[in-house]
Design a protein that fits this description.
Layout: H1 7-16, H2 25-34, E1 39-40, H3 41-50, H4 57-67, E2 72-74, E3 83-85, H5 88-98, H6 104-117, H7 124-137, H8 141-161, H9 164-180, H10 193-197, H11 201-210, H12 216-232, H13 243-258
Antiparallel strand pairs: 1-3, 2-3
Helix pairs in contact: 1-3, 2-4, 2-5, 3-4, 6-7, 6-13, 7-8, 7-13, 8-12, 8-13, 11-12, 12-13
Length: 283
């Protein structure tokens, strides 16, 4: 396409692709760049807007393309504004991929996820994991993000309750937290699922970390996953969830579950009842 292309025209080309709604911001920017001799940041931002995507997200997407070496600064345009171009060979590769399966990453990750989900405990957890994969396959990415979190937090509580030593460690951290606040002990000791469910999910993650029941890496994983869950659970024009983000979130949480086997058979109380498609905002 010529360098004088209209953002509206380019946006129409992008949105005309049957799998456009499954693309993340970087993929949209990549396709836009593949249609141009060269382009400016303003052109990319405007075209994002014409695609119905918040314009400020174009800058982050452009940065990712630059870091990946997919586009480069073009110093031969003769314009005052900084311009960028995608090398011809890269443009041809992007256009070729547009005629193939647009999301091989999702296909591959789903295959890997199917394997790790098969390792979940039989019953409610495995069934819930399978349904989460169904959401991914249907491109219901927000639903998949929320469901994966519900699976992980419910399992974390089951994992704590399945070992009396873990529960004792959790209670020690819980009581210490209230002492640090110089406040009266609230709901201590914790002894069952109902009491743990009454806490905000962020609190459960925090005291699990304080009790050294999970290491820093897993604690950070859970905190970030809860943040994504809260974003996914509410409509926002500023936040988008696409295949790579959702699949990565699901894979990380399912892997966390698989790597923390239950010590004993958890009582049926709550195992299937607590798993649900949407959870309360217990942030």
């Amino acid at each position: 396409m010529s360098k004088e292309a209209d953002p509206v025209e380019v946006a129409q080309i992008v949105k005309a692709h049957e799998h456009y709604h499954g693309w993340d911001d970087t993929r949209v920017a990549e396709v836009i760049a593949s249609q141009m001799d060269y382009f400016s940041q303003d052109f990319l931002r405007t075209t994002f807007g014409k695609c119905g995507i918040s314009g400020h997200r174009a800058y982050e997407a452009l940065g990712k393309l630059l870091n990946a070496g997919l586009v480069e600064v073009d110093s031969n345009t003769g314009t005052v504004l900084t311009s960028f171009r995608m090398p011809r060979a890269t443009q041809e590769e992007v256009r070729r991929r547009l005629n193939q399966d647009p999301e091989p990453e999702l296909t591959n990750v789903s295959a890997a996820l199917a394997d790790v989900v098969s390792k979940l405990p039989e019953g409610a957890y495995r069934a819930f994991g399978q349904e989460t994969l169904t959401c991914l396959a249907a491109r219901a990415y927000r639903s998949a993000v929320v469901m994966a979190w519900n699976l992980a937090i419910d399992y974390l509580i089951s994992w704590i309750l399945s070992d009396s030593a873990r529960l004792d460690m959790l209670n020690a951290a819980w009581i210490q937290e209230w002492k640090d606040k110089k406040a009266g002990i609230h709901n201590a000791p914790l002894s069952n699922r109902e009491e743990l469910n009454a806490l905000k999910e962020a609190v459960v993650v925090r005291i699990t970390r304080k009790a050294a029941l999970v290491d820093k890496a897993n604690s950070d994983l859970l905190e970030e996953a809860l943040r994504k869950r809260n974003q996914a659970a509410h409509p926002s024009a500023q936040i988008s969830f696409e295949a790579p983000t959702a699949a990565g979130h699901v894979h990380a949480l399912v892997t966390f579950v698989v790597r923390h086997p239950l010590t004993t058979d958890t009582p049926e109380d709550g195992r299937s009842k607590q798993l649900r498609h949407s959870s309360k905002d217990k942030r």
